[in-house]
């Protein structure tokens, strides 16, 4: 074969896997449809949980990829403008997460892989896997000149996100899929506005809002919106007014908004996560809501399980079951978290009742050490034995 693993997609999943394999001398080729600038500029997730940090450390990548990322200290939970601080790393037994924006992580992983002599081909068009049930798989693609190329390999790692070709290349009927619409809308804006002191989640009768640092001088804000509303039509002044109400901070300064996006609150899982020589990794296999910040961490954890199985040569039959156990654990956590903070917004009688429940759930985190520890353990990321 031309290489051991063809990796489709150079996002967090593909680039984590590529680096793990490279560091253990397993050959791989990464095929990415977009150009380098696009991949390195895409802003999405922002947290490497403690477990993902351990994974990078095991491959000597902790310094190269996570250096400089501020370590998680406290989480601020504000209910009706009243702040309370939760020491999540301490509650997790001294396991802090790290704030590393996705584009920085991807830039660094690409840099490390290329420095190590890695084979990464951008602008690969019409990437198509073949012979996934054969003795050897093939992947074809076209380069920017339109020239066709073919690579033979032992394994194909489908790291090409939800809309990629990998999951679609598995014959229909072989996968079961599970989707869920949370019935919640999220509007997110990136603004030149001082970072909050701590990551901040706010629950109030005006709805949910959150603020996270994106470097020292920028913040990413999230605002829940009611179904049917279109926040892309909101004047910026309305966004700031809503943030002031929800964060209970009349003096919150309005900064320049540099990015606006609507985030789908949707969950999806495909089972099993492998078929023949194809292994789905990250968003290609599952989508999770941003609540709990597990999307990127799941991608890194999947990449780890696959890399270990290939490196150790112990067979890949357990890959799907191991990854699915963690996937469903995190789906449950993310749903629980979303429900907890989003039940506060509407003024109907049942809305008012649910709001009381949401506040009681949040309050429990500050009163019950076991409840707080369970929450913190999931925030830090869990170990999943095969
Ligand atoms: N051929 C080649 N590359 C492709 C194809 C294709 N047909 N389709 C998609 N890609 C590339 C995309 O351009 C992208 O760079 O695959 C990559 C997939 O990256 P992500 O969508 O970021 O998915 P993943 O690596 O699984 O990361 C998942 O990161 O932001 C998050 O929400 C995401 O948290 C989740 C995590």
TrEMBL record:
<dbReference type="InterPro" id="IPR050641">
    <property type="entry name" value="RIFMO-like"/>
</dbReference>
<keyword id="KW-0560">Oxidoreductase</keyword>
<dbReference type="Pfam" id="PF01494">
    <property type="entry name" value="FAD_binding_3"/>
</dbReference>
<feature type="domain" description="FAD-binding">
    <location>
        <begin position="2"/>
        <end position="311"/>
    </location>
</feature>
<dbReference type="GO" id="GO:0018659">
    <property type="term" value="F:4-hydroxybenzoate 3-monooxygenase activity"/>
</dbReference>
<dbReference type="InterPro" id="IPR036188">
    <property type="entry name" value="FAD/NAD-bd_sf"/>
</dbReference>
<protein>
    <submittedName>
        <fullName>4-hydroxybenzoate 3-monooxygenase</fullName>
        <ecNumber>1.14.13.2</ecNumber>
    </submittedName>
</protein>
<keyword id="KW-0274">FAD</keyword>
<dbReference type="InterPro" id="IPR002938">
    <property type="entry name" value="FAD-bd"/>
</dbReference>
<keyword id="KW-0285">Flavoprotein</keyword>
């Amino acid at each position: 074969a031309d290489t051991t693993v063809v990796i489709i997609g150079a996002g967090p999943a593909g680039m984590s896997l590529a680096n793990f394999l490279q560091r253990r001398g397993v050959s791989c080729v990464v095929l990415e449809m977009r150009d380098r600038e696009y991949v390195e500029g895409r802003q999405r997730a922002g947290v490497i949980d403690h477990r993902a940090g351990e994974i990078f450390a095991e491959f000597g990548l902790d310094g190269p990829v996570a250096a400089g990322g501020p370590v998680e200290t406290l989480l601020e939970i504000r209910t009706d403008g009243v702040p309370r601080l939760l020491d999540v790393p301490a509650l997790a037994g001294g396991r802090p997460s790290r704030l590393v924006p996705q584009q920085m992580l991807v830039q660094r992983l690409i840099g490390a892989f290329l420095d190590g002599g890695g084979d990464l081909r951008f602008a690969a068009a019409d990437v198509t896997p073949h012979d996934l049930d054969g003795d050897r798989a093939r992947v074809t693609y076209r380069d920017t000149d339109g020239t066709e190329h073919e690579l033979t390999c032992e394994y194909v790692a489908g790291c090409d996100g939800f809309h990629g070709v990998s999951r679609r290349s598995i014959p229909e009927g072989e996968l079961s899929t599970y989707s869920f619409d949370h019935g919640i809308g999220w509007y997110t804006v990136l603004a030149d506005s001082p970072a909050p002191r701590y990551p901040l989640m706010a629950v109030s009768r005006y709805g949910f809002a959150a603020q996270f640092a994106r470097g020292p001088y920028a913040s990413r804000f999230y605002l829940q919106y009611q179904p049917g509303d279109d926040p892309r039509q909101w004047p910026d002044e309305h966004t700031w007014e809503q943030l002031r109400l929800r964060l209970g901070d009349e003096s919150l300064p309005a900064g320049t908004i540099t990015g606006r996006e609507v985030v789908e609150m949707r969950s999806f899982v495909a089972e099993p996560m492998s078929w023949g020589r194809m292994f789905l990794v990250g968003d290609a296999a599952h989508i999770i809501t941003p609540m709990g910040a597990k999307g990127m961490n799941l991608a890194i954890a999947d990449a780890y399980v696959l890399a270990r199985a290939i490196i150790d040569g112990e067979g890949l039959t357990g890959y799907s079951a191991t990854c699915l156990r963690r996937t469903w654990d995190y789906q449950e956590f993310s749903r629980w978290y979303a429900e907890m903070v989003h039940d506060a917004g509407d003024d109907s009688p049942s809305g008012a009742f649910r709001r009381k429940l949401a506040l009681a759930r949040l309050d429990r985190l500050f009163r019950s050490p076991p409840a707080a520890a369970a929450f913190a353990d999931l925030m830090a990321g869990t170990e999943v034995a095969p």
